[in-house]
## 1
Amino acid sequence: MESIVSGRQDHNKVTDKSYWDGVWSPAQPSLSTLSSSDFYYGKNGLFAKLIHKRLGSLKGSHILELGGGGENKRLLSMKKWMEADVTALDFSDEGLKVVKELFDINQCSGHFLNADICSWIPDQQYDTVVHWGVLEHFIDPRPMLEKSFCALRNNGKLLFSMPNMEAVGAQLWKSWCPENWSKHVFHSKELIEKTLHEIGFSTIESFHYGVPFLKGAEWEMASIGQHPIDLLQKVCSASARVMPIFHKYGNKHISMERGFIAVK
C-alpha cells in the first residue's frame, strides 16, 4: 500500500528530487551576508512590508516553510529581522545544503527537515505555514494544501504565492521558455479558494504583488526581441527601489506574483 501511495504522490508532481538537486548543485557561489538595507529582503524592505501587512509581528512565532531549500532569503529575513523561529522543509539534499550555508554565513539558527512534503507527517503545529513558488509544481494542489492545514495550529495562518501565469508577460515565458514553462501548472483563483474552503480554511484572501512581469526564466529559444525585454525587466526591477507602487498595489495582468492567505 505504501508504494502505491508514494506512486500517486510522485504522479502529482511535475518536478522531482533530482530536478531540484540539479537546480541547487553546486551550492550557490553568490551566498553572502544579508544587509539590513537590502531593498527587498532588508529589515524594512519590500518583503518585510508584505509580511507585516499580511501576518503582523512574527517575533517568537514558529514558521514553517514548505519547499524551503535553496538560496532562501525570505526565510532568512523572517529569522534575522523578524525574530521568528523558522523551519525549512525540503526533499532536495542540495537545496537544504544551500539554505543551511546561507544561515551559517548570516550567523542565524534554523531548523532544517529533509522530507517529501506529501509523505511527511508533522510532529508539531506551527503558527504560520508559508511556501513561495511551490504549489504550481503540483498537478493537484489539494494534497499540499491539506498538509499545510495539518501543520498549522488552530487560528494559524497559511501564506503562499506562485508566479503570476496570467500576466501578459507570462506569454513570453511560455513561448520562449517552453521547457521551464512545462514544469509549472496554472491553478485558477477559483480552484485554490474552493480547495481551501473544502479543507477547512476560512478568511481567504487573494492578492497580487511584485514588479511588472516580463521575464519568467532564462530564454531557451532565440528571438530578436529578447534583448529589449531583458533590459526592460531590469529597469522595472530597479524602479522598485524608488517607486514600490507595484508591490503595494498589485495587478492581475502585470504583477510578478499572486498570493493567497487563509486562516485555519
## 2
Amino acid sequence: MMDWTDRHCRFLHRQLTRRALLYTEMVVADAVIHGERERLLGFDGTEHPVALQLGGSDPQKLAEAARIGEAFGYDEINLNVGCPSDRVQSGTFGACLMKAPVLVADCVTAMKASVGIPVTVKCRIGVDEQDPEPALDALADGVFAAGADALWVHARKAWLEGLSPRENRDIPPLDYNRVYRLKAKNPNKFIGINGGIQSLEEALDHIDHVDGAMLGRAAYHTPGILAGVDAAFYGDKPKTFDFAALIDAMADYAARHIERGGRLGHVTRHMVGLFHGLPGARRYRQILSTDATRPGAGPDVLKAAFAAVDFSGTDAEAA
C-alpha cells in the first residue's frame, strides 16, 4: 500500500471505524533515521490505534527507526517481509527477506529490545521456488522465538522474478489453508490473514480459523465497507452511519490541510470510492476527480460532490 495509506487516507478510515487497527504505508528505516520525520511519520491523534510499518534488513537501523516511531506515538511497529516491489528488491528487504528467516528474527529481536510497544511482522507464504510449508514455518518459528507479538500472512507467494508488483497481487494463487495450518500449529500465537479479502463477510469467515483479518485494496477502493467493522468485529451496537457528519469532518480536515499549504486533492483522492454502488456515486466521483484537483479548490467542492449522492433506500444517513 505504498503511496496509498498516507495520513489523509488513515484519517478518512478512522472516521468510519473507531476500533480497527490502521497501518501506515511502508517507510524505509533509513528514511526514518535520516529523512524529514514529520513529513514521513506525522499523523493526526485521532488515527489511534495506528501501526508504523517499516522496511529494512539491518537490525540496528530497524531498532533505531522503531524507537523513533514509538517516540512519535505509534501503537505498534510492523516489519514488512511481504512487499515485492522493485524498490524493496533493490534494497534487499520486503519479500526478499522470506529467504532469510534468521535475519528477520535478528531484526525482530533488535526491535523488541528497543521499544515497549508491540512489534509485529507481515509476510508472504513464500517467494519464488520456495515450498510454502517449510518456508512459512521457518519464518514464523524465527519471529515468534524472537518475541514477535503477531504475524500477518499474505496468503500468496511473491514471485520476485517474472512478475511485476501488480501481477504479484493477483496471479499467484491464494492459499488460505496454508495460513490456517500455521495457526493450528501455533494456537497460542496471534496469526492474522491477508490477501484477496473483498468484504467483511469474507473476513468474518477467516476469523473462524485465525485471529485477525486485514483488508487492503478493498478498504481503499470501497472505504464505505469500514463503517460496518465495529459492529461486525468488536461487538458494538449496529447503528445508522452518519455520512453527512463524516463529510463535515473531512471538509474541516481538508481546510486545515489547505491552510498548511496542502491541496484539496491530497485528501479527496482517497475518497473517490466512498459511495461505491449508490445512486449518484458516478457524479460524486466525477466532481472529486475534476473539480477537487483544480488549483485553489476548497472544501466546498467536497460538499458539492456529496450532495450528488442519493441515500434513499439505504440504512445510512445523508443529513
## 3
Amino acid sequence: MPTAPDALSVSDVNHRARQTLERDIGELWVEGELSGVSRPSSGHLYFTLKDDQAQLRCALFRTRARFVATPMRDGDRVRVRGRLSIFEPRGDYQLIAEAVQAVGVGELLAAFERLKTKLAAEGVFANARPLPCPPRHLLVLTSPTGAAVRDVLAVLAARWPLAHITLIPVPVQGREAAPALIAALGLLNRQPALDPHSDAILITRGGGSLEDLWAFNDEHLARAIFHSRLPVMSAVGHEVDVTLADFAADARAPTPSAAAEQLVPDQRELARRIVALEMRLGRAFEARLEREAQRLDHLRARLRHPGEVLVRRREALALIQGRLERAIASRLETERRHQRQLAVRLAAHAPARRLAEAGERLARARTRLHIAMPRQLAGHRQQLSAVARELQAVSPLAVLGRGYAILEDDKGQVVRRAADTAPGQALSARIGEGRLDLKVIRTDACDTTPQSGTPSGR
C-alpha cells in the first residue's frame, strides 16, 4: 500500500479556506433581499441575503451597525458592501458586512462616480499642502449640535489644551448645507478673515447614509475647497464613507476624532518624549562626565612635576656627555695611531732619499748610454749602406742607366706591347737621364719574349 499523505485538521482546512477567500476576493458589493434579520443583545446584526436561486449568510458587527441608516426589515432589497470569510468554529461561509444601502442608492453612486471622474480630470483633487501641527488658529466648519464637534473638542482638549479653535456653525445635511459651506469658505479666505493668524480649516460631521452625506459631494463645494487659500482637512462620516470633499481637501481623516488627532500633537506623548529625552540627556551627560573624568585621570597620571622632568633630563644629559667624551677620547687615540703609522710610512718614502736613489740610477743609465750609442750608430750605418747597395742594384733608374727606356702613353700608363699603340700616337720615353717625346710611325707584332742578355722594351 502506498504511504498516505499527511492529513490536515478541520481547523487547518477552515483557516486556509478563510485566508483564501479574504485574500483572493477582497471587498465586493452584493445585492439581494433581506431575510431572517436578527438583533441579539450584543448589538451585532445577523441576516441572510437571498435571490430566486441562492442565499448568503451575512454578519454586520456592532461597530458598523450603528452607522447604518437603512431600515433592516425582512423583505427589503438592499446592497451590502463587505468581504467574504468563513466562521472557522462552525465552518459557516458568510459575508462580513461593512455598509448597507437601500437599492435606490445606486443612482446616487453613479452620479458620485461621474462627478469624481470629471473633477479628477480637471485637477480639483491635486491639493496636497501640509497642514501645520499644531495650527495657531483652527477654524472648524460643522454643526454646533452634532456629535462631531463634541468629539473634535474633546480630543483637542485632551491632546492639546493650548489649541485656539473657532467654531463656524453651518448646516451639514440637506439642501442648505453645500451653499452654507461654500459661503463660509469664501468668508474665511477673504483678507482679513476672522483672525489673520488662522492657518487651517477643518470640515467635519458624523456618519450617516449616502443621502445624509450628499451635500459634501457637491461639485461647487469641491471647487471651493480646492481654491481655498488656507489648507483644508476633511473628516466627513466614518472610515467607510468617502465624499468629493475628501478628495478635494489637502488632507482627509476617517473620523472627526481622527482629524483632531492628526491636527495636534498629544501632550502626553510629548511629555513622555521630553522625559525620555531628559533621561537620555542625563545619561549622556553622566557618561560624558565619566569619560572626561577618566581622561583627566589619564592626563594627570601622565603629567609630571617640572623638577622631576629637569632631573631626568640632567641625568640623560650626563649620560650623553659621558658617552660623547669617551667617543672623543677613543677617536683621538685612533687618529694618533694613524698619524704615527703615516709618519713611519713617510719616513720610509722620503723625497730626498728617493731623489738620491733616482740620481744614482740616472748616472748609471747616462754612462751606459754614452757607451752604447756610438756602437749602435755604427751598426745602423753599416746596415744602411748594405740596404742602399741592394736598392741601387734593383732600382729602375739603374736599369735605365744601362740603355733601357720606359714608354708611357699620354695617360701615363706604361706601354708593354706594340699592339697597345697605334700609328700617330704620341708617347713619352723615360731614359737614364731625361725624357723623350715620341710619335709611333709603325707597329710590328713580333715575339716579345726577352732573350737571355737582351733588354726588352727598347
## 4
Amino acid sequence: MAPPTDTALSVSEVNRRARLLLEQGIGELWVEGELSGVSRPASGHVYFTLKDSSAQLRCALFRTRVRFVAAPMRDGDRVRVRGRVSLFEPRGDYQLIAEAVQPAGEGELLLALERLKQRLAAEGVFANARPLPCPPRHLLVLTSPTGAAIRDVLAVLKARWPLARVTLIAVPVQGREAAPALIAALGLLNRQQALDPARDVVLITRGGGSLEDLWAFNDEHLARAIYHSRLPVMSAVGHEVDITLSDLAADVRAPTPSAAAEMLVPDRRDLLRRLAGLERQLLRCTQARLEREGQRLDHLRARLRHPGEVLTRKRQVLGELEGRLRRAMLMRLAAERRQLGHVQRRMDACHPRRRVEQAGERLARVRARLEQAMQRDVTRQRERLAGLARQLQAVSPLAVLGRGYAILQDDEGKVIRRAGDTQPGQALTARLGEGKLKVEVKRRLK
C-alpha cells in the first residue's frame, strides 16, 4: 500500500469525481425492471427500487418529473425507466436519477422509434453540423406562442443580448397537427430566405413533457425537412434527457429552451467584462511599450555623439592603423630581404659553374688515383707474369726440346709416341727446341 501523501483527496472530492465519472461515462439509458419500495415523502420526490431476479438498483424521481408520469407507480409493476446513473454525494449512494417512467408495454413503440432512428442515421439524415452565427442577425423561433419555451427564450435573450432580433412563428407543438405545421413553416421560411437574407438561424423548441407530448418531434418527415433545410436549425425540445429525431437531425441540439438561447447569443456582461479586461491589458501593454521605448531612447541618446567627436575619434583610429600598417610593412620588408639573402646564398651554392668546378676538381682527383692504381696494377701484373713465365719455363716441353729432343706430329697435329703408329712414306712434322722440320718415314725399325 502506498504511504499517505499531502495530496490525499477528501471524501467529498472522491464522491464528486465518482459522480462525474458515472454521469459522463454511462450517460442516459433505459432500464426495465420491477418496482419495489416505492416511497413518496413530503418533499414530493418519489424514491423506489428497480429490481430483477438477481440485482436491484435504487432510483430517485424528482417532483419536477413526477407530474409527467401518467400511470400510478405501485410495488410489483413492471416499468421502463429512462434516466442517468449518478451518485448521491453526502451518503455515497449509487442511484439512477429517473426522468421518465413508462409501463413496460410501451417498449414496442420505443423499439419502432429506435429502428427509425437507425435507418435515418444510415441515410445520413443526422449528419448536419453547420456552425451557427453568434449572435444571429435574425432569429426565427418555431414554437407555441403560449408555451413556457418562448418565454424562457425571450427572457434569456433579453438578459444576455437585448439587441437580438427575434421573429416568432406560431405553430402547434403537440398533437397530430404539430409535425405538418412545423414542416410547412420550415419550408416557407426557406423559400422566403431570398427576400430577407438576414434570416440566418431557425430555432425549433418546446418545453418538457411525456413521450406522447413530444412524439410529434419524432416524425420522420419533420426530421427529413430539418435535414434538407438551407437555413441552419437548432432544436431544443423538452428537457436535457429528452432526445428526439428533430434534435438529431438539427445542426445543433440544445438540452432546454433556455440553454438554446444561451448557446445562440453571447452574454453581454461577459463581453463587457472581457472588453474591460482587454482595455486594462491594452493599457498595461501600452504603458510597458512606452517604458521600453523610453529606455531605448535614453540608451540611444547616451550613445549619440557630436560629429566632430566622432571624426576626431575616427582620425585617431586611422592614425593608429596607419602606424600599425607602416610597422607591419617594414617588418614584412625586412623578413622578405632576409628570405631573399637566404635564397641567394642557396642559389650561389647551387650555381652550375660552381658545380662544374667542383666536378673538375673531383675528376682530377679521381684521374690521379686511377693512374696510380693502373701503374701499381701494371707493375703487379708484370711481376706476376714473370713468375708465371718462370714456372712455365720450368715445366715447358720446349725446355726438354732444348736439350736435343724432338716431338713428332702427324698432319692432324697428333703426337706420335710409337713407331707402330706410323707408315712408311708418311710425312711427319718434327718440332725441335728451335724451329720445326718436315720429315718422311722411310721404314720402321723394331
